[in-house]
Amino acid sequence: MSDQRTWCQRTGVWYVWWLPAPTKSNFPPVRYRMEQSRQNPSTLQEPSLPLEMRAESISSYQTVHPRPEPPPRRRVLLPLGLFLATCYSTYYVGTLQFGEPGGLEYMFAVMGILLTHEMGHFLQALRHHVPASLPFFIPMPQLTGTMGAVIVQGANSNRLQLFDIGISGPLAGLVVAIPVTCIGILNANVAPELPGGAHVLHFGDPLFVKLLIWWLRDLPFGTELILNPYLMAGWFGLLLTGLNMMPLSQLDGGHVTYALMGRHAHTLAHLLAIAAIAAMVITANYQFVVMLVLVLLIGLDHPPTSDDTVELGRGRTILGYASLIIPILCFTPIPVSYPG
């Protein structure tokens, strides 16, 4: 019988393992028992337990402390196929609206915004060793050409990891969406505003887009900008970011508010859901009813993290509360209207 001894400087504990001498029947050596002592390990004696009891002792130890299972293999073919399908659907929609080469310009712009957003989540998940899938893009062969993308994330993240993963996607997406929107505004043609009864599809501008237009262009009274590939891609990227940052359920905003407020975020989510339902009924605007139903089915309350006691720190807390203004700036309740 031989032993192995390890000193843990942080806890001040000696860890001692007694190993049987290797033989043909038990090679490699099997660890049978572990003892702990704050004394020098030389004061510990070889255990006098029978071999069967020692084996039972380590079996119980392994039951209490099971070896972690390796993470499942990340799927590649399905995310890649959906990515290519979404590239085609955005190119198809862009070509219908803007011709060539506007279709390619719109595809590269909108997919660049979405991919940067999702990579913000994915790379932070890798940084924190939280299991996460590759992004699943959702093609849609009309309007914007896509409904965005999602990432399936493991449930073993703590409070700080949840905050970092949740907020990185919207911030990364904005880094691309804002310059794309500015390029679209600066290169957009100006035309007289169409009358309210005109049979045209009208895209409602979020507050942030209106501020950028006011800052970058001096439009004469009674005129408006005509959509181009970059302006439409930036508009959609900002709208999607504002929607994702709503403090609800498993949305990015839900992750951030739960990391900031804990269970108090549940109250905020319920109040916002009630306000959204009331607004839909009063205005008879049901454009987001499908998404609201999905959120209600998933559940308004964000589940707890693996450790809600981890501190965020002052910098993350300030950034988190500042990010709550994103839905106010980037979201519009009536993104598309058809007055005629």
Overview of this structure, please?
The chain contains 11 helices and 9 strands. With 340 residues, it is mostly helical. It folds into 2 domains: 63 residues, no CATH class; 261 residues, no CATH class. It has a 3-stranded antiparallel sheet. Strands 4-5 form a two-stranded antiparallel sheet. Helix 4 runs antiparallel to helix 6 and helix 4 packs across helix 7. The longest helix is centred in the middle third of the chain and has 29 residues. The radius of gyration is 28 Å and the shape is globular.
SSE order and pairing:
Elements: E1 2-8, E2 13-19, E3 33-37, H1 51-64, H2 77-98, H3 102-127, E4 136-139, E5 146-150, H4 159-187, E6 190-192, E7 202-203, H5 207-216, E8 223-225, H6 229-244, H7 252-261, H8 264-283, H9 289-298, H10 314-323, H11 326-330, E9 336-337
Keywords:
340 residues, mainly alpha, 2 domains, three-stranded antiparallel sheet, two-stranded antiparallel sheet, 11 helices, globular
Summary?
This protein has 340 residues and is mostly helical.
